[in-house]
Amino acid sequence: MLTLSSPPLQLKPSFPFPHRSLTSFPSLGDISNQKMYSLHCCTICNLKDESKCMSCMAREQNGTMENLKGRRLLVFLVSSSLFPTLPSIGKTKMKNPYDEKRLLEQNKRVQRENNAPDEFPSFVREGFEVKVVASENYVKRDSGLIYRDFVVGTGDVPKSGQQVTFHYIGYNESGRRIDSSYQQGTPAKIRMGTNALVPGFEEGIKDMKPGGKRRIIIPPELGPPVGPSTFFSAKQFEVFDVELLGVKDCTRRTIAFYSDVVCD
């Protein structure tokens, strides 16, 4: 194998300042400069003794160093006054109670503009945190569901497999009406226990009695999957006013190859 080698390159220093020795011993140029500086001091002080010239040179060097220290102190003081210390941006922001009050008043104002019903709950939203503000008449369950009974009703509560007939009005957090069975002109009919209802909605009406009226506040975790086919919004609470009209038993019937469920 043939190996080609090239002579070492002679690099020239490109520094803008003169070359300085890396050793601790002074070079001849440094010694000559020191003698010239000593002669300069002797000429200024009008001295002939070499020892006195050296002490004169030391005093002049000390004066130069003190002057340099004074200049550095002056620059530090001026820079400190022109550029004061900036506050730390990592400090924890204190929660102002007036901010919550302002958000609550803003939410109430929007609800009045949307003609929300009386004693409608308020939602104070700060980032991803939502605080539900309601009267003491509301009950909160461990699941996160919140409800209030306006009319208790009479009779038995619906059981799994039974059909419930009810009217409802749906609202969003701002009190705007989303959907209503009253406007559709016909009540809704659903069988309990068939996963045909929103989990929070079914939990809210499963212990209602016929004739009862209840307001249900459904948290996002008990709502349906968010998508274009639903009116639920991500991370939004939904409010429903429900009137349970009746409960019916259901039986399955089979005729030839056809099977269905009939509710009496």
Give structural attributes.
seven-stranded antiparallel sheet; alpha+beta; 264 residues
Report on the architecture of this protein.
The N and C termini lie far apart (101 Å). This protein has helices at residues 28-45, 50-82, 97-113, 181-184, 199-205; strands at 122-126, 129-133, 139-140, 146-151, 163-171, 177-180, 188-191, 213-218, 238-248, 250-255, 258-263. Strands 3, 4, 5, 6, 7, 8 and 9 form a 7-stranded antiparallel sheet that branches. It is 30% helix and 24% strand. The chain has 264 residues and is of the alpha+beta class.
Layout of helices and strands:
Blueprint: H1 28-45, H2 50-82, H3 97-113, E1 122-126, E2 129-133, E3 139-140, E4 146-151, E5 163-171, E6 177-180, H4 181-184, E7 188-191, H5 199-205, E8 213-218, E9 238-248, E10 250-255, E11 258-263
Helix pairs in contact: 1-2
Structural class: alpha+beta
Low-confidence parts, pLDDT < 50 over ≥5 residues? 1-32, 73-83, 85-92
Rg (C-alpha, Å): 44 Å
Report the end-to-end length measured between terminal Cα atoms. Answer: 101 Å
Average the pLDDT over all residues and give the rounded result: 74
The gross shape turns out to be elongated
Helix count, DSSP H or I runs of 4 or more residues: 5
Order of SSEs:
HHHEEEEEEHEHEEEE
Share of helix, binned: 25-40%
Short description:
With 264 residues, this protein is of the alpha+beta class. It has five helices and eleven strands, in the order H-H-H-E-E-E-E-E-E-H-E-H-E-E-E-E.
